[in-house]
Task: inverse folding
C-alpha cells in the first residue's frame, strides 16, 4: 500500500514539473494569446502602410484619416484586434506619418533566446505599451511629363 502511494506521489510531481516546464518554455496560455494579438497588430499596421502608399500614389497626398482608404481592404485593420480601440494615425509632412497602438510585449527583446516576433520588418519593432511608428511612404511621386515632350502621331 505504502509503495503505491509513493509511486502516485512521484508520478504526480513529474506531471506537475512537466506542466511547469512547458509554461516556463512557451509562456502561459494568456502570454501566448497576448503575443498573437501583438503579431496581429503588427501585421495590420504593415498592411495599412501599403494602403497608405497606394492612396499617396493615386492622390499625391497622404490621406487625412484612415477612413478615406479603401474600406474593402482596411475595414478590419482600423481597430485593435483585442480591445477594439482605434489605431491612431497622424499625417505629417513630406510623406511622413505616424501609426500608433498599444502592445503587450517588447518585440526588441528575446525571451529565452528566442525572437518572439521573427517575421517583423525591422521598422515595426516596438516596445510594450503605447507605441508610435514614425513612417514614410515608400512611393516617390514623379513630376508629370511636360506636354511638349509627349509624342503624338
Result:
Amino acid at each position: 500500500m505504502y509503495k503505491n502511494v509513493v509511486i502516485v506521489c512521484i508520478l504526480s510531481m513529474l506531471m506537475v514539473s512537466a506542466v511547469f516546464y512547458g509554461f516556463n518554455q512557451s509562456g502561459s496560455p494568456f502570454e501566448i494569446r497576448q503575443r498573437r494579438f501583438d503579431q496581429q497588430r503588427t501585421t495590420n499596421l504593415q498592411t495599412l502602410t501599403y494602403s497608405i502608399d497606394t492612396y499617396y500614389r493615386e492622390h499625391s497626398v497622404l490621406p487625412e484619416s484612415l477612413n478615406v482608404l479603401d474600406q474593402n481592404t482596411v475595414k478590419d485593420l482600423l481597430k485593435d484586434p483585442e480591445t477594439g480601440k482605434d489605431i491612431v494615425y497622424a499625417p505629417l509632412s513630406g510623406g511622413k506619418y505616424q501609426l500608433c497602438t498599444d502592445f503587450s510585449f517588447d518585440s526588441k527583446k528575446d525571451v529565452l533566446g528566442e525572437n518572439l516576433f521573427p517575421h517583423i520588418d525591422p521598422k515595426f519593432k516596438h516596445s510594450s505599451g503605447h507605441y508610435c511608428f514614425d513612417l514614410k511612404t515608400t512611393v516617390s511621386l514623379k513630376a508629370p511629363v511636360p506636354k511638349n515632350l509627349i509624342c503624338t502621331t
